[in-house]
Specification:
The chain is mainly alpha-helical. It folds into 2 domains: 99 residues, RNA polymerase sigma factor, region 2, helix turn helix motif (Rna Polymerase Sigma Factor, Chain: A, Orthogonal Bundle), CATH 1.10.1740; 69 residues, Arc Repressor Mutant, subunit A (Orthogonal Bundle), CATH 1.10.10.10. It is built from 9 helices and no strands. Helix 6 crosses helix 9. Keywords: Sigma factor, Transcription, Transcription regulation. It comes from Clostridium rhizosphaerae. Belongs to the sigma-70 factor family. ECF subfamily. This is Sigma-70 family RNA polymerase sigma factor.
Length: 173
């Protein structure tokens, strides 16, 4: 059974289909949540809140092909709400390093530098980078999630990458 068929079954109330969808999406959603909050437990909480909200409102999803976009929007809104509620977030290196081990890089210091540099970006650039490189979304999918034109997403991605290069060079020096 393909992904869209699973979504259609979930919309009709099939709990097993919804569970299968969550299993298929959980890693990408968790990585996205973690990229926003930099804390394992908070990312898990955001993910769980996203699953709950998706479960109670999946019948409102109009087109099955937009499921990933729809659930990613829910997750991003939950993450932003969480951050706004908790303006002062404490980052711990241990939580941070354990969760980013799966990302490519030569050393943990490199990974921390990259994540630190992403944090320095403006929110609009940070969101595009997170969706592109943590969720592996296409430019078109990012434009749907963020409600930006495709050209704007491309511009933000290029500007974000340029700023990251500058940040990374500053940290090396």
């Amino acid at each position: 059974m393909n992904f869209e068929e699973q979504v259609k079954l979930a919309i009709k109330g099939n709990e097993k289909a919804f569970e299968n969808l969550m299993d298929a999406c959980k890693e990408g959603l968790y990585r996205t949540a973690f990229a926003y909050v930099k804390n394992e437990q908070d990312a898990v909480d955001i993910f769980q809140e996203t699953v709950y909200k998706a479960y109670i409102s999946i019948d409102k999803l109009k087109e099955a092909k937009y499921f990933k976009t729809w659930i990613t929007k829910i997750l991003i809104n939950n993450a932003i709400n969480f951050i706004n509620k908790n303006k002062k977030i404490v980052y711990t290196t241990e939580d941070f390093s354990n969760s980013i081990d799966s990302y490519e890089g030569n050393s943990i210091d490199e990974k921390l530098d990259i994540m630190s540099s992403i944090d320095k970006l403006e929110d609009k650039y940070k969101s595009v980078i997170i969706l592109k490189y943590f969720q592996d979304l296409t430019i078109t999918e990012i434009s749907e999630v963020l409600n930006y034109p495709v050209g704007t997403v491309k511009t933000y991605l290029n500007k974000a990458l340029s700023k990251l290069r500058v940040f990374m060079n500053e940290e090396i020096i």
